[in-house]
Amino acid sequence: MAKVLLGFMGAGKTTVAGYLTDNFLDMDTIIEEKVGMSITDFFAEYGEAAFRKLESETLQELMKIDGDIIISTGGGVVISEKNRELLRQNRKYNVLLAASFEVLYERIKNDKVYQRPLFLNNSKEDFHGIFERRMMLYEGLSDLIINVDNRTPEEIARIIKCM
Description:
By secondary structure, the chain is of the alpha/beta class. The protein has a single domain, classed as P-loop containing nucleotide triphosphate hydrolases (Rossmann fold, 3-Layer(aba) Sandwich), CATH 3.40.50.300. Helix content is 55%, strand content 11%. The radius of gyration is 15 Å and the shape is globular.
C-alpha cells in the first residue's frame, strides 16, 4: 500500500518524503514532467480546472502502483471528490502534515523556488479561507496527523516510519 502524504502547500510533504525513501513519487514533479512546464506556468496558460483534471489522472495512476511506495501529493489534491474517494480507499496509510496557518504563510511567502499560484493570486484573508476549507478535508481523510510546526523533517519521517 502507498503511504500518502497530505497537507497544505508549504507543510513539507516533498521534503519529508525524501527522508522516508529515495524513490518517493512527488505528484507535482510528475505533473511538471508530463506537461513540460512548471505548475505555475500551466496554471497561467490552461487554468486551474485543467490542472485539477491532470492532478486527478496522476493520483489515479500512482494509486495503482503495487508495493510500499510514498506519494507526496499537491496541496489541492483533496479538492476533487474523485480524489477523496481514491484516498478513502487508502485508509490506514494517509498521513497529514499539519501546520498552523501563520507558519505556512511565512514559509510560502519566503519560498523563492516554488511560486504558488493560489498564494500569488489571493489576499492573505482569502488564502486563509482556502487553508481552512482544505484542512477540514485533509483531516477527514487522514489516519495519522502530525503537527510539523516545531519538528524537523527527520523527526516527522521517524514518526511516519512507525506506521
